Amino acid sequence: MRNTLFTVNSPCTRPSILPYCERVKERVTPKRFEHIVRVAILTETIAQANRFDRGELRAACLAAVLHDVARDLSAEELFALAPPETELEREHPLAVHGRAGRRIAESWGVSDERVLAAIEGHVFGVAHDNRIGMALYVADVSEPGRGVNHDIRELAMHNLFRAYQRAVNTKVAYLRSRGKTVHPVTLRVYREICGAL
Predict the structure, then answer these.
(1) Helices 131-142 and 54-66 meet at what angle, rounded to 10?
(2) 59 closest CA partner among 8, 16, 123
């Protein structure tokens, strides 16, 4: 029986994306899949509001569907797909789930670098010229099921870059306030895009 979220007007109902939705659904918990569908719907909405062309829109939706495909894997499975590159990643295996998700997507035949970079970058951030990655990052941190970052979601509907700046700034501020280490990639992205904040 299909998840009822498939019947919602979402990217998961599109013939070109549905097979990926079904494969992802088999690999994650029901709760995680619900999050993925909400992220896909919001990513599509953000992309449309920011006038993505047809190819960008499809790439953004596919990246959203695939972004957490590795999120429910064990530490051993994650490290087999994406060996840790820093001590922080060794201590926190979930930190590599973006790279692991990229590897799974590649093994499923996804070759669009825009999609792969967005999947990998949804954890730590993407370059400021990666509109697909920015849309996914913002959707992931502000989808309605999280109950936070409503301001970021609203801002993304008319200024994706500013929303992305705010999302990265919020993440770094949160981690610092908790005394947690900020990943080097996130710090690099933060320095590149948040200087104006």
Answers:
(1) 40
(2) 16
Could you tell me if 172 and 182 are in contact, meaning their C-beta atoms sit under 8 angstroms apart?
yes
Nearest Cα neighbor of 115 from 95, 97, 96, 135 is: 135
The number of folded domains in the chain is 1
Decide: helix, strand or coil at residue 194: coil
Q: What is the CATH number of the domain that holds 172?
A: 1.10.3210.10
CA 156-158-164 angle, 5° bins: 30
**Domain boundaries, position 11:** 4-193
DSSP string, 162-190: HHHHHHHHHHHHHHHHTTPPPPHHHHHHH
- Tell me the C-alpha distance between 65 and 72, whole Å: 14
Reported as a single tens digit per residue, the pLDDT across 4-33 is 445 456 777 788 899 999 999 999 999 999
pTM of the model: 0.93
CA 78, CA 89: separation in Å to the nearest integer?
Answer: 11
